[in-house]
Design brief:
A hairpin with a 5-residue loop joins strand 8 and strand 9. The protein contains 3 helices and 19 strands. It starts with a helix and ends with a helix. The protein is globular. By secondary structure, it is mainly beta. Keywords: Signal.
Length: 339
């Protein structure tokens, strides 16, 4: 029986030694993109804009280069991501034509150490073609933060865009112990600049879920809405220069999705609860009449060399009423819960 005792002792010692190191980070990368999955096959292209079309939706994905074509006239350099989103019969782009949606724009650690505010915009990205319905934006480790990343844009059967982002920090440079990342969608002059979501007050006695219609008073005022039961609160310097990051509203959201309306179309951004995404917004982020319907993400307790990631979806459809929209997005919410 001694060998059994020895084996059990060895197993206990092994578990004690291995388990803490092998515990999976709650924000670990799903292993979907070519950054983390060597089985993913892709080809590169000299083009700076790729069209994805499915159902009644046409999307254009761009890298960080300027584009000036009939499809994308006057598109500025740096505004990577979803440059155009249109529904069949729609002439105008949902987004400000010179700018973009799902635009990866900030890397930070909450300190004033920001040698480049818009680091993801300023350095080259590579378009990687995966299939007719999927394209990735790869960025090599950036000069200041040494963050390598890859964002996958896949258009689904109904024209919804599934966006998977994965990243690897290659150095311990984030002084507050977390990585802060930010995405913007610049909406072209909607009549209603509000975003709409289920939420509740984060303080006081009135903490019952309600449906909220949020329009922040000005850029950088009550600009971000964390999830209810948020697991991590980032430390941010008082004089931190990215105003949409560190000015929370009086509300938290209770369901992980929100939408806005432009030109009788609804643009809905849906997230996984496990990713702890924060909603963000500005009434003038894309120009005087152009709001920004944004989100941000924090990775606490990161380790250099480890991969982190999240999955979200962007749904675009004609607007009729909230009940109809909720029915339309239910399949996507269910799919995100299962990921």
């Amino acid at each position: 029986m001694n060998w059994i005792r020895c084996a059990l002792a060895g197993l206990v010692l092994y578990c004690f030694m291995v388990s803490p190191l092998s515990a999976r980070h709650p924000l670990a990368a799903p292993g979907v993109t070519s950054l983390t999955n060597p089985q993913v096959k892709y080809r590169t292209t000299s083009e700076h804009a790729i069209v994805l079309k499915r159902g009644k939706v046409t999307a254009v994905i761009v890298d960080n280069a300027a584009v000036d074509t009939e499809l994308l006239p006057g598109h500025r350099a740096g505004y990577n991501g979803l440059a155009s989103l249109k529904y069949t019969g729609q002439k105008e782009n949902l987004f400000v034509p010179a700018l973009a949606g799902l635009n990866f724009e900030h890397i930070h650690d909450g300190t004033t150490r920001l040698p480049e505010k818009f680091e993801p915009r300023k350095f080259p990205m590579q378009l990687r073609l995966i299939s007719e319905d999927t394209v990735e934006l790869y960025q090599a480790p950036t000069p200041n933060w040494n963050l390598e990343s890859c964002g996958r844009y896949q258009i689904l059967d109904d024209g919804t865009i599934e966006y998977t982002f994965e990243c690897i920090p290659h150095a311990d440079l984030f002084k507050n112990g977390y990585i802060g990342l930010f995405w913007a969608s610049y909406i072209q002059a909607p009549q209603d600049r509000r975003i709409h979501f289920y939420g509740k007050r984060k303080e006081g006695t009135d903490q019952v879920e309600q449906f909220l219609h949020a329009r922040t008073p000005a850029h950088g005022v009550e600009s971000t809405h964390p999830p209810a039961g948020v697991r991590f609160l980032p430390r941010v310097a008082e004089d931190f220069p990215l105003a949409l990051v560190n000015h929370p509203s009086a509300y938290v959201y209770s369901r992980p999705w929100y939408y806005g309306i432009r030109d009788n179309y609804a643009y809905t951004q849906l997230f996984r609860s496990q990713d702890q995404i924060w909603f963000a917004q500005s009434p003038t982020g894309g120009g005087k009449q152009n709001p920004a319907w944004d989100f941000q993400w924090f990775i606490p307790d990161y380790q250099p060399g480890e991969a982190y990631g999240f999955i979200m979806r962007a749904h675009y459809t004609p607007w009729s009423d909230r009940t109809t929209l909720e029915q339309q997005i239910q399949t996507h919410l269910s799919a995100l819960k299962q990921d």
